[in-house]
Amino acid sequence: MTIYLITPIPKPRMTKSDAWKKRPSVMRYWAFKDECRLRKVSLPVEGATVTFVLPMPDSWSDEKRATMNGKPHQQTPDLDNLLKSLQDAIYDDDRHIHDIRIKKVWGYRGGIKIET
Predict the structure, then answer these.
(1) Which of 39, 40, 73, 94: disulfide with 87, CB 3.0–4.6 Å?
(2) pLDDT (0 to 100) of residue 34
(3) 17 to 14, 26, 89: CA distances (angstroms)
(4) In total, how many domains does the chain have?
């Protein structure tokens, strides 16, 4: 199992104008892609389990944080958009990936766990 302490960012809908408009969601996505490439995140072609650990809000009490740590994350961002951003960060062409299991959970810090 490999753990990358990179907060997952979903893939935003982008338009041609994002090349010069610099929307915050797009800037966060590009920073995420750069961080994944800098840390040399790798994803096997088959048989991997990817767990996206999304950070809990600061507004939550310590009691709620302790209760929710490791529990399923059932809010936005969507799971498919998280996987899409990870694959786009790692591969220029990701059509060769054919077997992957994904999930998202709450955590104290954001991260990506990849198990083979």
Answers:
(1) 94
(2) 92
(3) 8, 11, 20
(4) 1
Give the pairing type, strands 100-107 and 2-4. Answer: unpaired
Entry pTM: 0.87
pLDDT of residue 23: 83
Q: How far is CA 55 from CA 5, 59, 68, 73, 111, in A?
A: 11, 12, 11, 10, 8
Place of tokens 């220029």: 92
- In the chain, which ranges are E strands? 2-4, 48-55, 100-107, 111-115
For residue range 40-77, what is the model confidence (pLDDT) as tens digits? 998 888 888 999 999 999 999 999 999 999 999 999 99
User: What six digits make up the tokens of 54?
Assistant: 């999304």
Residue 103 and residue 72 in contact, taking contact as beta carbons nearer than 8 Å? yes
Range of the domain at 36: 2-115
